[in-house]
Amino acid sequence: MTDETENLKKLPLHDLHVELAGKMVPFAGYEMPVQYPLGVMKEHLHVREKAGLFDVSHMGQCFLKTREVEHGSPEAHRKIAAAIETLVPGEIRKLGEGRIRYSLLLNDQGGIEDDLMITHMPGENYQGWLYLVVNAAVKEQDFALLQNKLGDVADLDIKTDLALLALQGPKAADVLVSLGIDVAEMPFMSAKVAQLDDIWFFISRCGYTGEDGFEISVHDHQAEAVARKLLAHADVEPIGLGARDSLRLEAGLCLYGHDMTAQETPVEANLTFALGKRRREEGGFPGSQKIISQLAGKPEKLRVGIKPSGRAPAREGTEIQSSDGVKIGEITSGGFGPTFEGPVAMGYVDIDHANSGTKVQLVIRGKAVPAEVADMPFVPQRYYRGK
Question: End of a domain among 233, 250, 267?
Fold first, then answer.
């Protein structure tokens, strides 16, 4: 065993992953399953067709609670929303109870320090509470930022005793309903408290595969019981990091630290949907002047989809050139899309080459390979929008 492996943290479901013959690899400081005996390709296709169970307990979970007013009072949500809006460009003030917002932690230059999910906790007693889920690789940095910037007005309750499971795929809701969990009419990007037998947990209708799905936040000592119940269903297979990456790439979703970093603004990262209408008008978030200026004009570069011709995938770091051989950008994520049935990628190009259909070339193994700028997602997203 190497020193690197010895220093890795273990997930609450580590023993279950080993029992299921998961191939364990280092990821974000944890030992995590990259695939199971089914293999990455079949795991990917299973999620698109039925339902897959991911262990994402490495993510950072916390509650941010207002301290200026009594929890549960009418003013509580407004206060905590005002606090976090000093760090993110999303509309949190109007976020309804039990609803979720995807947003971004920004630095003073408008660069993206992380992306995160923000939930307005449901229930009268929890007004003034926000439930946050941040990325594993930067969670300590995020927690420090929240504490340093908001510590005077809010308490940060970091949860180290919670696991996080993601059940993703078109059969996900049916699986949960078959176990007696009432999720059939939950809207996309909503959350509530639910129960399986005698286990209570917090369930959110969201995910990062482009499919309908749910994330289950449950006490770590109860996570295995929930996971085994889900895996016992005929439509559910365990899914590793390999398929998680190919699924989110086909869906056109960013991987933090690759497709967006502290050097890119939300406009450059093509994430303007995360900028609330009121926030665009009022500003008041880090880097707002630069970001609003980019919205009014145009950025120098833009994250776009890239579709290589042929079958060779374009990996991260691949140089993107104009059709006449001038470097115009770089691939940030790329691989083979099993559902797309071909190579897919995303990356940054200068704004003059960002229009869909623009012919470009990729330098793969020293050779220029034809490609073109493409619309994302590569595979249609199928989130539940109601009947």
Answer: 250
Q: Which tokens belong to 42?
A: 């079949």
Yes or no: say if 127 and 143 are a contact pair by the CB < 8 Å rule.
no
| Upper half-sphere CA count for residue 379 (Cβ side, 13 Å) | 25
Query: Looking at the whole model, is its pTM more than 0.85?
Result: yes
Chosen domain end from 209, 227, 250: 250
Q: What is the C-alpha separation between 208 and 215, in angstroms, rounded?
A: 10
- Count each helix (H run) and each strand (E run) in the chain, helices first: 10, 20
Is residue 87 in a domain? no
Q: Divide the 387 residues of the chain into consecutive groups of 10 and give the mean pLDDT of each group.
A: 69 98 97 98 98 98 91 88 98 97 98 98 94 97 98 97 98 98 97 97 97 98 98 98 98 97 98 97 97 96 96 95 97 98 98 98 94 98 87
Q: What is the torsion angle, in degrees rounded to the nearest 10, for the CA atoms of residue 106, residue 107, residue 110 and residue 114?
A: -40
Please tell me the number of Cα atoms within 13 Å of 54 on its side-chain side.
29
